[in-house]
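Dear Dr. L.,

I hope this message finds you well. Following up on our conversation about the binding site, I have prepared a predicted three-dimensional model of the protein together with NAP. For your records, I am including the exact sequence and ligand specification that went into the calculation, followed by the structure tokens. Please feel free to forward this to your student if that is useful.
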Amino acid sequence: MRNVLIVTGGGRGIGAAVSRLAATRGYAVCVNYRSDAEAARKVVQAITAAGGTAFAVAADVSRQAEVERLFQTVDRELGRVTALVNNAGVVAPQGRVDQLDEQRLTRLFTTNINSAFLCSKEAVLRMSTAHGGPGGAIVNVSSAASRLGSPGEYVDYAASKGAMDTLTTGLSVEVAREGIRVNAVRPGFIRTTMHADGGEPGRVDRLQHLLPMGRGGEPEEVAEAVVWLLSEAASFVTGSFIDLAGGK
Ligand code: NAP
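The resulting structure of the complex is given below.
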């Protein structure tokens, strides 16, 4: 049976690095994206050019119907999913809690945490031995923000990642005897274009001196931990968190 991996938000940043690295380790990869088809196409092209298997699927993973279509497409094209990385996520412009509104909160929470629940549901239905599946592994891409709270920047984003941590803990126990491991990584200050969406493209450069290691991280450094957690090398690891934030 081959390893079939879905990476949500796999077209750019951390998700793209995970997709590329997992493909080199033999996973057939579904690169999910929401709107940047060109970026996802380039990731798929790099993987297939190197002899791997990948294809891209557009789906807004905050929407249940689109998540169901995503998983059904993978069933058909690659076979039953054995690994899921809940990576898709967004930030919103930096600000204080007293500047927030309902529209922003709905977008942040549906994109960052509803998506992880909806995708985990579809994955468990296919992986769980209780549902006749072979088992599998889920890795949630949380954030150092879940520990630090992101005051003055985006407490709402940090809270969505706090929910991701709780999902990791609860689901890991729920399915521990059904062959599924659930873990999380908590990156911080990683060099991707996400910071531009928060209104500050140079955010990592401005803040990296605050980290004990004195530098920001690269998406590939996060991918190494994600792919390890997915792998059989981590066969006794569940409900765990790896902090990838330069020591903070
Ligand atoms: P990024 O470069 O902005 O990439 C985000 C990815 O998520 C894109 O591929 C985007 O798709 C996808 N996406 C967004 N909303 C989606 C939706 N509704 N449905 C499907 N895909 C969606 O961000 P990144 O920095 O790599 O972040 C990846 C994850 O790491 C996020 O969960 C983020 O919170 C977390 N993280 C990042 C950092 C950091 O410093 N960068 C630190 C801690 C945690 P399109 O390309 O189609 O737009």
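In brief: The mean pLDDT is 97.

With kind regards,
A. P.
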